[in-house]
Amino acid sequence: MPDIIIRSIFDIHKYQVECRDWHSIFPRQHHFLAYEKEGCVIHTLEGGRELVASPDTVLFLNENDYYEAHAEELGYSIVAELELDNAPESFLVDFSGDNSMSNLFTAMLNCRNDNLASNRYRALGTIYEIFGLISRREEAEYMTSSTEGKLYATRLYIQEHYSDPTLNMEKLSVISGLSIRHLNVLFNKKYDSSCWQYVIDTRINAASKLLCAPGYSIGTVAEQCGFRDVYYFSRLFKKHMNVSPKEYRLGGSVKD
């Protein structure tokens, strides 16, 4: 992580998710640092990289990153909007089983709004401590042969169960024996893709094959590939393939 300098704190607040899908305003004026308390939200950045914010994860969204968000489960997070020098790329870190991050964000929240001016130094110190804890966690990442075996088993499980609509990061975390954050970091290191991105890629690949077979409606294809919402499937398919499922079926399968 780069040597981050906090220039100012624009706001600290609770963010309640009230809709299933939205996208970021671009360009934004601030970076977002958020701790997910409840719910599960998939943030898809340009290029297809996904950051899955679930309880006890810390999400950082760089102001220069456009993203689309899909809430698999409604909830809320604690958010700080910041102006930074040397801001890192967008990232997500899992702190499941570690209460220290939850305590830090709760302390940060107590410095918000009309109390922010009098508590400015306290808020700054807390946010620097958050970044420091994240940096220490990143430095501790490593890969063992045992871990590689867990990653292979998880990848195989995805290949065999991608059509299960209840498949989620919590289930994959149990299968792998790794925390969600650790699983995503190491899976990306091993396979050059986040774990959930691999699920999406596997589902889209299977859907492209079914769309070429007769007798399957687009709704049926979506269902058999693990998508509960045909509209979400169609939007995601077009993002990956540059054509809609209907256009792909009609012969527009070549990417631009």
How would you portray this structure in words?
The protein is α+β, with helices and mostly antiparallel strands. Helices cover 43% and strands 24% of the residues. It is built from 9 helices and 7 strands. It has helices at 99-109, 120-139, 145-161, 169-176, 180-191, 195-211, 218-224, 230-241, 245-249; strands at 5-16, 21-23, 31-45, 50-53, 57-61, 67-85, 91-94. Strands 1, 2, 3, 4, 5, 6 and 7 form a 7-stranded antiparallel beta sheet that branches. β3 and β4 form a beta hairpin. The longest helix is centred in the middle third of the chain and has 20 residues, at 120-139. The chain is globular. The two termini are 35 Å apart. The mean pLDDT is 89.
- Output the structural class: alpha+beta
Low-confidence stretches: none
- Straight-line distance between termini: 35 Å
Beta strand count? 7
The H/E string reads: EEEEEEEHHHHHHHHH
Estimate the strand proportion: 15-25%
Shape: globular
Query: What's the overall average pLDDT, rounded?
Result: 89
Number of H/I helices: 9
Oligomer: single chain
Report on the biggest sheet.
Answer: 7 strands, antiparallel
Considering DSSP H and I runs of 4 or more, what fraction of the residues is helical? Answer: 40-55%
Radius of gyration: 20 Å
Features:
single chain, 256 residues, alpha+beta, 7-stranded antiparallel β-sheet
Summarize the entry for a quick read.
The protein has about 260 residues and is an alpha+beta fold. The chain has helices at about 100-110, 120-140, 145-160, 170-175, 180-190, 195-210, 220-225, 230-240, 245-250, and strands at about 5-15, 20-25, 30-45, 50-55, 55-60, 65-85, 90-95.
